[in-house]
User: Which sequence fits this backbone?
C-alpha cells in the first residue's frame, strides 16, 4: 500500500463538523467589529522578512526563533535588491497592516483607519496545547492621527472583551499595564539594565541574555528566582513621566466608564518591541500554560519606524484556537437541507436531477442520491439530511408529471404537479422567513 502523507505538526484540518463553529465565531466577531466601526483589510500571507524584523524587533522571540522563511529563491526577483532578504510567512498581522497603511497612503484618506482582519498566522513553535505553527487571529488595528486618545485604548480593550462576551466565554481576565512613552521606555531600559547587573547570577540563562538584548522580558519571566530578583528591585512607576501616568489614568477611567473590569499587572511587558504606553493581555485559567486568549496595546512609533507618517496606533489580536478551547461546547449541528429528492427508479433520476437544479436555483438547499440506491437507503439519507420535505419520483409520478411531497414532520404526503414546484417553493420560503 502507498505510504500515507500526514499533516505537518502544529497545523490542523478544520473538518466540516468544526468549521460550522468557526463560521459562527467569525460571523459573531465580524458583527461586533463592524458595530465598532472597523472595516476588513486582507493582506498577503507572506511578506518581506525585513518587515517583521524591523517591527517586532530583531531580539524578540518570534523573530529570533519562530520565523518561517520561504526558501524558494525563484520567488525572488534578482533585479530587485529589496527581494534579496527573502520572504517569510506572516507571524502576526500588525506589521503587515502597518505596511499596507503606509503603502496605500491611508493617512491621506482618513484621520483614523479602523481596520480588522481574520486569518492564519504562522510561527515555528514547538507545538503543544494552544500553541500551533499555523493558528488564526481576529485582530484590529486603529491607526492615524485620530487614534491618539486614551478613549481609544479603552475602546479597543472593551471591543476584545465584548467579542469574548458575545461568544459566551467566562472567567477571563483583562490584565493591563503601561510601558510609558517611547522616551520613558528607553530610559527605563537603561535603568533596569543597571539595576539588574549586580544580580546577573540570580537570573535564569535566558534572562542573563535578555538583560542585554531585551531587558523588559526579564520582568515577565516565569522562573521563580527571576521573579524574586525582580521583586527585590522594588520597581514601582518611578520610570514613568507625569504625562504617561496621566495618560494611563485616563485609560483606566475610560474602562471604568464602560464597566470593563481589569487587573493592573506591572510585570506585563509583552514580547514584541513595538509597544509603548498601554499594553494588555486577556488570560483564561482554563487554557493551561498557554493562557493568553489575546493581547495588544499601543504602538505610537511603529508607523514612522517603517517609513510612514508620524501617527499613533493601537490594536489587539485574539487567538481563535484558544477561544475555541475556552468556549462552552458550541452547537455544531450542520444546517439541515430544505428538500431531499428521491428517485425510485433509474429512469426517474433524470427528472430528479433536473428538479434538484430548479430547487437550488430557487434558493433552497437541496440534495439527492447521485447513484441509484434502494428506497430504504435513500429514505435513510433523507432522514439524516434533516430535510423537512422529501420529494419522491416513482413510475406513476413520471407518467403523470407529478411529484409526491412528503412532510417529514407531520408524516403526511401530497401530490404536486411538477410544473407547480415553483409556487410550492415560494410558499415554503415564505414560511421560512
Ligand atoms: P501575540 O501576543 O503574539 O500578539 O498574539 C496574540 C494572540 O494570538 C495570543 O494571545 C494567542 O491567543 C494567539 N497566538 C499567538 N501565537 C500563537 C500560537 N503559536 N498558537 C496559537 N495561538 C497563538 C500579536 O500577535 C500582536 N500582533 C497583537 C497586536 C495587534 N498588538 C497590536 N495590535
Assistant:
Amino acid at each position: 500500500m502507498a505510504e500515507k502523507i500526514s499533516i505537518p505538526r502544529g497545523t490542523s484540518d478544520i473538518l466540516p463538523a468544526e468549521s460550522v463553529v468557526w463560521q459562527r465565531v467569525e460571523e459573531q466577531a465580524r458583527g461586533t467589529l463592524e458595530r465598532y466601526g472597523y472595516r476588513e483589510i486582507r493582506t498577503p500571507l507572506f511578506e518581506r522578512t525585513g518587515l517583521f524584523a524591523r517591527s517586532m524587533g530583531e531580539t524578540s522571540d518570534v523573530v529570533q526563533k519562530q520565523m518561517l522563511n520561504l526558501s524558494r529563491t525563484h520567488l525572488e526577483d534578482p533585479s530587485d535588491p529589496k527581494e534579496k532578504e527573502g520572504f517569510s510567512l506572516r507571524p502576526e498581522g500588525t506589521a503587515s497592516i502597518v505596511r499596507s497603511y503606509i503603502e496605500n497612503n491611508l493617512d491621506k484618506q482618513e484621520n483614523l483607519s479602523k481596520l480588522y482582519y481574520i486569518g492564519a498566522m504562522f510561527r515555528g513553535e514547538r507545538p503543544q496545547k494552544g500553541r500551533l505553527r499555523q493558528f488564526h487571529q481576529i485582530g484590529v488595528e486603529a491607526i492615524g492621527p485620530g487614534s491618539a486618545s486614551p478613549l481609544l485604548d479603552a475602546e479597543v480593550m472593551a471591543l476584545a472583551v465584548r467579542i469574548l462576551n458575545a461568544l459566551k466565554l467566562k472567567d477571563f481576565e483583562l490584565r493591563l499595564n503601561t510601558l510609558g512613552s517611547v522616551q520613558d521606555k528607553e530610559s527605563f531600559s537603561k535603568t533596569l539594565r543597571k539595576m539588574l547587573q549586580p544580580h546577573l547570577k540570580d537570573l535564569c540563562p535566558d534572562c542573563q541574555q535578555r538583560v542585554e538584548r531585551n531587558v523588559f522580558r526579564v520582568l515577565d519571566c516565569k522562573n521563580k528566582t527571576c521573579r524574586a530578583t525582580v521583586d527585590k528591585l522594588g520597581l514601582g512607576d518611578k520610570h514613568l513621566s507625569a504625562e504617561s501616568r496621566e495618560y494611563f489614568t485616563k485609560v483606566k477611567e475610560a474602562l471604568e466608564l464602560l464597566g470593563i473590569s481589569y487587573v493592573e499587572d506591572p510585570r506585563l511587558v509583552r514580547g514584541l518591541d513595538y509597544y509603548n504606553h498601554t499594553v494588555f493581555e486577556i488570560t483564561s485559567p482554563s487554557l493551561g500554560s498557554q493562557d493568553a486568549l489575546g493581547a495588544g496595546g499601543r504602538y505610537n512609533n511603529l508607523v514612522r519606524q517603517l517609513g510612514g507618517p508620524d501617527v499613533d496606533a493601537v490594536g489587539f489580536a485574539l487567538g481563535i484556537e484558544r477561544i475555541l478551547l475556552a468556549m462552552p461546547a458550541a452547537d455544531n449541528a450542520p444546517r439541515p437541507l430544505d428538500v431531499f429528492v428521491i428517485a425510485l427508479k433509474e429512469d426517474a433520476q433524470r427528472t430528479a436531477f433536473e428538479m434538484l437544479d430548479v430547487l437550488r436555483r430557487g434558493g433552497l438547499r437541496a440534495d439527492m442520491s447521485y447513484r441509484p440506491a434502494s428506497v430504504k437507503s435513500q429514505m435513510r439519507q433523507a432522514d439524516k439530511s434533516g430535510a423537512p420535505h422529501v420529494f419522491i419520483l416513482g413510475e406513476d409520478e413520471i407518467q403523470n408529471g407529478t411529484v409526491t411531497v412528503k412532510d417529514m414532520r407531520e408524516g403526511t404526503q401530497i401530490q404536486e404537479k411538477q410544473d407547480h414546484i415553483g409556487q410550492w417553493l415560494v410558499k415554503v420560503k415564505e414560511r421560512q422567513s
About this structure: The longest strand covers residues 113-122. The chain is about 40% helix and 20% strand. Residues 16-35 form the longest helix (20 residues). Residues 92-94, 123, 125, 130-132, 135, 137, 139, 141, 292-297, 315-317, 319, 321-322 surround histidyl-adenosine monophosphate (CB under 6 Å).
